[in-house]
Amino acid sequence: MATTTPHRSSSKRPCTAPYKTSVSSITTGHGDGGETGLLYGGRVAKDDLHTEAYGSLDEAISALGLARSLTDSPERAARILELQRELFVVGAELATGPGHRADLESHFNVVTAAMADALENEIHDLEARVPLPGGFVIPGGTPVGAAIDLARTLVRRAERRTVSLQRAGGVENPEVLRYLNRCSDLLFMLAREAEQGATVASGGQRRREVDGKTSSGND
After folding, report:
1. At a CB cut-off of 8 Å and minimum separation 6, what does 50 contact?
2. What's the CA gap between 68 and 2, in Å, rounded?
């Protein structure tokens, strides 16, 4: 996820692209020493917690692009594109260093509670109409479903990296983690929907009750 000149947005909708290239070549040589520039906050090592977090999101966005290229459903393609754009908004948050949130908010849309709530409502809608197997799922029922599952695992990785970043004081907005958690759950359901009944169960059953509570194995 390149961090070049920020794309300013006056809209309250998610930015279509948080960053735009304003140089004649994407090759600058500035990163040859193992550093890169945050959106706001100066230069950091390429294995910094910020770059690990938003780099994982870059991978997830690319996997969603694969899924979008594979689907023959205009509605599914449009929904995937919306998620890609929202993940760029998340990426802008993760690419902002401590003490620079005011700069981010003045130029970019940020992750809100309403964004996470919308994903949760969509999950519930899919749960009501998409059948799930009794056991764990083996990805690969269809090419589109497999690509969405790949994106799901990469969002999960981004979530883990964000937990580390938050623990180090690098995430000021608690809605970022909540959004990533809901997003991975939504991608699980979108993958099952895309499989159109071709879902492959692992054969192992989930434990249904643990101390009186349902256990799904997915938090």
Report:
1. 38, 41, 44, 94, 95, 96, 97, 165, 170
2. 21
- pTM (2 d.p.): 0.81
Q: What confidence tens digit (pLDDT) does each residue in 190-217 have?
A: 999 999 876 666 665 554 544 555 555 5
Cβ neighbours of residue 41 closer than 8 Å, sequence gap 6 or more: 50, 96, 97, 98, 99, 100
Q: Which residues contact 5 (CB under 8 A, 6 or more apart)?
A: 19, 20, 21, 22
Q: Which residues pair with 44 in a beta bridge?
A: 36
Residue 59 to residue 158: CA distance in whole angstroms:
9
Q: In this structure, what are the phi and psi dihedrals at residue 45, rounded to the nearest 5 degrees?
A: -65, 150
Residue 76 token pair: 């599914």
Separation of alpha carbons 158 and 153, rounded Å: 9
Q: How far apart are CA 130 and CA 4, in angstroms?
A: 41
- As given in the structure block, the two tokens for residue 113 are 């509670």
Domains in the chain, ordered, with CATH? 36-198 (1.20.1200.10)
Amino acid 114 reads A
